[in-house]
Amino acid sequence: MDLELKFTEDRDILLKNYGVTFYVATYLNELPFNLRVKVNNALENLNYDLFTPSDDYNFIGGVIRGENPFFFSLAFLREEGEYPYFVDIKEDTLDEYLDYVKAKQTIENYEHKKNNTESTTNAR
């Protein structure tokens, strides 16, 4: 896993405490910089402790809001005592994202509570 982490640092990816496949690192680095930063921030705000450690993949949907929303899904592993390991990422359609919303499997469902509290407070 050290090799993947070193590779991602060399490729200017922003994720620090995660394992990342070559495909995910390449995909993220090919995104426009501003979008890459927003996806990174969304992934950094996830509370991975809410996912039960197992050998099964976890799938989660996300959206970067804006004039042209960017819908995406991520597959990752969460093993006991290990950093999350990002296995796959892809751009989704609105319909695919709405399937994640319906199943309550979106990034917003798993954000750190601190961030949700701040969002609520700032909205007042």
Report what the structure shows:
Residues 1-11 and 115-124 have low confidence and may be disordered. Helices cover 40% and strands 19% of the residues. It has a single domain, classed as 2-Layer Sandwich (YaeB-like fold), CATH 3.30.2310. With 124 residues, the protein is an alpha+beta fold. The chain has a four-stranded mixed sheet. It is built from five helices and four strands; from the N terminus they run H-E-H-H-E-E-E-H-H.
In short:
With 124 residues, this protein is α+β, with helices and mostly antiparallel strands.
Entry keywords:
single chain, alpha+beta, YaeB-like fold, globular
DSSP strand content:
15-25%
Q: Percent helix among the residues? A: 40-55%
Helices and strands, in N-to-C order? HEHHEEEHH
Please state the average pLDDT score: 81
- CATH class group: Alpha Beta
Rounded to the nearest angstrom, the radius of gyration is 14 Å
Q: Judging from the principal axes of the Cα atoms, what is the shape?
A: globular
Uncertain spans: 1-11, 115-124
**Total E-strand runs:** 4
The span between the termini is 43 Å
Number of helices: 5
Category by helix and strand content? alpha+beta
- Going by CATH, the architecture would be 2-Layer Sandwich
Task: Predict the CATH topology.
Answer: YaeB-like fold
Number of separate structural domains: 1
Q: Numbering strands along the chain, what is their spatial order in the largest sheet?
A: 1-4-3-2
Largest sheet: 4 strands, mixed
